[in-house]
Amino acid sequence: MEILVVAHPIVRSRLSVMRDRDSSNAEFRAALRELATLLVYEATRELQVRDTTVTTPVAVTTGAAIANPPLLVPVLRAGLGMAEAAFNLLPESQMGFVGLARDEATHLPTPYMASLPESLTGRPVIVLDPMLATGGSLQHCLELLHARGAEDVTVVCALAAPEGVAKIESGGLAQMLVTASIDERLNEDAYIVPGLGDAGDRQFGPR
Ligand code: PRP
Ligand code: URA
Q: What's the CA gap between 17 and 199, in Å, rounded?
């Protein structure tokens, strides 16, 4: 799995707003939206394009269009905060949804919805979730995608823990991980340290 940690100054500044416990829900959502734009931009560098013919006011020239637009898959709830940014960059894409809630005691994901095309054979997929902690949620999502034939999966997350990165890497179902930071570790509650807290609650309020 290729791992890209984007250390751009604007990425680092938006991540710092998200980390700040005093940022409001609105400030957190705005920073995540901007961060997602920058991370998805980096994650799509190698997307294939096809030539198009463009007539400018002056001449005819060769343009480019995304050849095979990826399926965007936000992981609910927290991934919803990245969905609009990704759609804005890739308006020709389609979107699927996976709903998972982590059990506070066991730290295991409880699936509550999946709305995905039946076949993902030959389609690139971009998974959007701000947090990769134990990796249980993401691994579950990757297994759903794999079962539908997805073979080209990029994961975009704001923050990752080393434990989650190792789990996803050993699972072998993601080709690329793009993140703004790989933090120090997980704490006893399986929260990322230093992290930013609960990414769903910080956007939408407590469940
Ligand atoms: C968060 C986050 C990930 C998951 C990461 O979601 O958005 O999906 O935790 O944890 P893991 O790597 O240990 O599985 P959560 O389950 O809290 O649900 P929410 O997005 O609805 O708040
Ligand atoms: N989910 C979150 O939202 N935050 C963490 O630190 C870990 C899992």
A: 13
Ligand 1 pocket, Cβ-based, cut-off 6 angstroms: 75, 77-78, 100-102, 107, 109, 129-138, 164, 190, 198-200
C-alpha to C-alpha distance for 6 and 158, rounded to whole angstroms? 10
Contact 201, 23 (CB under 8 A): no
For 104-159, what is each residue's pLDDT tens digit?
999 999 999 999 999 999 999 999 999 999 999 999 999 999 999 999 999 999 99
Q: For residue 114, what are the β-bridge partners?
A: 98
- Residue 180 CB-density burial (10 A; 0-12 exposed, 13-18 middle, 19+ buried): buried
Closest CA to 4 of 47, 31, 42, 38: 42
Low-confidence ranges of the chain (pLDDT < 70): none
Q: Quote the pTM value.
A: 0.98
